[in-house]
Design a protein that fits this description.
Blueprint lengths: L11 H27 L3 H25 L6 H11 L2 H7 L4 H8 L4 H13 L2 H10 L4 E3 L2 E3 L1 H4 L2 H39 L9 H13 L3
Length: about 220
């Protein structure tokens, strides 16, 4: 039986359960992928790491929708659309990359710049295509290629680093929202919806780089 987007119920309980179980499943997928990586089965490890990254993206999408006090049908429609689209989940998994940068590259301007450039150039459609190449044979012009000829150890290491860092950063973020989403909603009722929140980009950028460049 094919599950359609319109068959999905979306309410607070389901969003909380999706977030919780997606993070648990991501951890399980990463554990299986670690075994494949250790056995030098890099292509299959790549696929599982990327599936895990998509689960992280799904969890983040779920908690972001959960906290909205003015959730609309359009918001739910977009959530359902992203739920079934692999590139959308890959992209959403990178929502916390700025915080990862601050954590990993504190005091390291060059490292931070390199990391941010890599994040900005990440192509979710390319990564999704690579995932498929890590599982199936393909024909490129006149060449029939196996996964081992298209996805190498270096590609696997890239996706491993991405999912490991994103999962570690998403864990406390998702847990915090699941525990305190009602208080976050109360704050919005008193101060306005986060959908209408304005950000002083110049101030935010200064605070970001001040944090990076401070070594203490």
């Amino acid at each position: 039986m094919k599950i359609k987007k319109k068959d999905m119920n979306v309410n607070d309980e389901i969003l909380m359960e999706v977030a919780k179980k997606s993070m648990q499943n991501a951890e399980s997928l990463m554990s299986d992928a670690d075994l494949l990586r250790e056995a030098k089965r890099f292509q299959r490890a790549y696929a599982l790491y990327q599936f895990a990254m998509e689960e992280v993206g799904k969890a983040i999408s779920s908690v972001l929708l959960l906290v909205l006090i003015d959730r609309t049908n359009e918001d739910v429609k977009e959530y359902k659309k992203g739920f079934f689209k692999h590139p959308s989940k890959i992209k959403k998994s990178g929502s916390l990359d700025m915080f990862i940068c601050q954590f990993l590259y504190k005091g390291d301007y060059d490292g931070a710049m390199k990391f941010l450039e890599s994040c900005m150039s990440e192509d979710e459609n390319y990564l999704d295509a690579q995932k498929n190449k890590s599982l199936y044979t393909d024909v490129v012009e006149d060449n029939v290629l196996m996964p081992s000829e298209m996805v190498n150890e270096e590609s696997m290491k890239y996706i491993w680093f991405r999912v490991l860092s994103r999962h570690k950063m998403a864990e406390p973020f998702v847990r915090m929202i699941l525990e305190h989403y009602e208080k976050i909603r109360e704050h919005q009722l008193a101060n306005g919806s986060i959908k209408n929140m304005s950000v002083d980009m110049e101030k935010a950028a200064k605070e970001f780089w001040d944090e990076i460049l401070t070594k203490d």
